[in-house]
Amino acid sequence: MRIGGDVPGFQPCEKCDYNWTSDANQRWILFAAKERGADIFETFSNSPPYWMTNRLWCSSGGQNYANNLNSDYYDKFADYLTEVVKWYKDEQGLTFRTLEPFNEPTTGYRGEFGSQEGCTYKYLAMSEVVNKVGAYLNKKGLSNTTSVSIADEGLFEGEITTIELFLGSWSSKDMSASIKLSEQILNDMRNLKPVAWVYWQVIEHAPNGNDGNDYGLIGADFSNSTTPLDIRLSFYGFAQYTKFIRPGYQIIFSNDGDTLAAQDASKKTLVLVCTNKNNASDVWNINVSKFNIKSFNAYRTSNNNETLKLLPNIWNITGGILTYESPANSITTWV
């Protein structure tokens, strides 16, 4: 299995006790995020424990892309997932808002034995497992705080209730990946209107750079912690959204397809994330007359050695119109 994908479970065999010290690295990340203010958590399963699968393999589809979860273990899998949720709540004081039993279950990426962690499911099997997971959450007194979430698909066509699109690599030394990522966020937030937009693979194993061959916003060497991190421009492009559009902000209408607008009415804060995807500079005229705004702080990510640069006052507001010349292939956020 690929490095970074060989993640241990909490029950190594059918008759084994739960090992709550397992998966120490990811548990460290979880609690480090909580200590730094994260307060919404989801737990998900790439694959059932190997001993519950038909192929006894955690990176596999069944034969001919059939279900890899053995139907004899539907109840045990639901019990296993909810027992993990219960342990974190009772013993660690951490509540998962959602529990997702599947990841990319219908993409067809996985043959009988592969290196990409995951498990293939058919829709009827997913429906049965979801019902069982819900029943076990209720049985264990967890249903008031944790609900079932499905299913993060790898392809739009396979999605049922949530959307996760992988349309290419987000890693590169120039702005191409940042623009691509920004356009995807814009499209999803403006058209699909999700309640959250969550990035999956912020850090990827990329010891030799691997630019263009992975989804990481940060490249790392998982086998050597002394290797310096490779922080890509796409990390800062993503930060144009995450740093300034905070939980609780309301997405508001903008008639420009390359702008995402959000506000926090209680703090009287307006945020505009503007993406110039063209290979030439462009003059933006943004009507902010409804907000009685006289000044902004502006931050830009571009090819001009700008990561999340606070800009000087290089714009003007006249008659409620904000005028600004945006460099080619850049993302600018106004706050």
Automatic annotation (TrEMBL):
What does the UniProt keyword field contain?
A: Hydrolase
Question: What GO molecular functions are on record for this protein?
Answer: hydrolase activity, hydrolyzing O-glycosyl compounds
* Pfam families membership: Glyco_hydr_30_2
Q: Give the signal peptide range.
A: none
* Ranges of residues in domain Endo-beta-1,6-galactanase-like: 15-152
Please name the InterPro entries in this protein's record. Answer: 6GAL-like, 6GAL/EXGAL, GH, Glyco_hydro_b
- Protein name per UniProt: Glycoside hydrolase family 30 protein
